[in-house]
Design goal:
By secondary structure, the protein is mainly alpha-helical. Helix content is about 65%, strand content about 0%. The chain is globular. The two termini are about 40 Å apart.
């Protein structure tokens, strides 16, 4: 894209700057539209599983319901509790929303279709996802209310517990792919199973790691059954209790952007990214971005399915699963996978 703007007579510095801004907008605007639509899909899936109709009034089939909700929130008054720390209170949703968008900079939607194709893309994702807890902790503390504060403490403990397991799972993928670059990780999955199946999910050593990663993704994004930070039966609404208007909407947008990010990571790390499921020439006629979006949507459907059917964990169950099951399991698989790769001459 930089070359295109240079051909229009711009200097390299101006061309690079304009190309970067254009790339950010090309990701941010479709992502915000996707967030609005997946909220609609989420509600429709829940309704279908619970034998209800879901949104069906605003627009054809209720498609405009998310936009109507957004307009309603935008027109509401922003209320700040008198005892709250005003600066941090307002900064918290901005941090959550900004961090959620920043992670998409290294996500490849197709071969070469990525804003920043850096060599340490996976480390960047891990670092950015770790920062998302700051918005929740800031909101819980700044609200000067007990329920948001309890939620913030839960969020910090929960995200630390499951990010440790996620880190070891990523180590397993990096060991097999031999790279931290997300594009190279996807290309290493081509023909991985029997020479015809694209994806690490067919690998008997990596499939259990995908299962753990998927469950940890639910915990990382505070989705059911790990939504203890927003438990309405105990904490009213958790860290969002004192928020209204656009501040509340930014939390909502950031949460769903993180969910889509985790769905895309499931696709990229284990299910071949933009590659078709089968390494068969006619399937490559379908644009890679179509395969990427279909797989990401499939994982979002799984997220919604779990939310509509699985009851919430108790807090002690949440901690036990993270520290006593997932951590030893993921660490053990790092040892097993590295030993297998060394024994088979993978690094020779």
């Amino acid at each position: 894209m930089t070359g295109f703007f240079q051909s229009l007579g711009m200097s390299y510095e101006w061309a690079w700057g304009v190309a970067t801004v254009a790339g950010v907008l090309l990701i941010a605007f479709p992502l915000m539209l996707a967030v609005a639509m997946v909220i609609y899909v989420d509600r429709k899936v829940w309704a279908s599983i619970n034998l209800r109709r879901g949104p069906n009034v605003v627009g054809p089939f209720g498609l405009l319901q998310s936009f109507a909700d957004g307009l309603k929130v935008f027109l509401q008054e922003t209320i700040i509790p008198s005892a709250a720390n005003k600066g941090i209170f307002l900064l918290a949703p901005i941090v959550t929303f900004t961090v959620a968008l920043a992670a998409w900079a290294v996500i490849p939607f197709d071969a070469g279709v990525v804003l920043a194709d850096i060599n340490v893309g996976l480390l960047y994702i891990l670092a950015i996802s770790s920062l998302s807890v700051y918005g929740i902790v800031m909101s819980g503390w700044a609200s000067n209310s007990k329920y948001p504060f309890f939620s913030a403490m839960r969020a910090a403990a929960q995200m630390i517990s499951y990010e440790v397991s996620i880190g070891f799972i990523l180590v397993c993928v990096v060991l097999w792919a031999g790279s931290f670059n997300l594009t190279e990780i996807v290309m290493s999955q081509r023909g991985h199973g029997f020479g015809i199946i694209n994806g690490y999910w067919f690998n008997l050593l990596l499939f259990p790691m995908w299962v753990v990663f998927f469950i940890s993704s639910l915990a990382e994004t505070q989705r059911v059954p790990f939504d203890l930070t927003e438990a309405e039966s105990e904490l009213v609404a958790g860290y969002q209790t004192e928020y209204s208007s656009m501040a509340f909407a930014l939390f909502w947008l950031g949460e769903y952007a993180n969910i889509l990010l985790m769905c895309s990571l499931n696709t990229l790390l284990f299910f071949g990214g933009w590659l078709p499921p089968i390494d068969w020439a006619p399937l490559y006629l379908v644009p890679g971005i179509v395969w990427f979006l279909l797989k990401t949507f499939f994982f979002f459907f799984l997220f919604s399915w779990v939310m509509a059917t699985v009851p919430r964990y108790r807090y002690d169950q949440l901690m036990r699963l993270g520290w006593k099951v997932f951590l030893p399991m993921s660490l053990g698989f790092v040892v097993v996978i590295s030993g297998y790769l060394m024994a088979t001459g993978h690094y020779s």
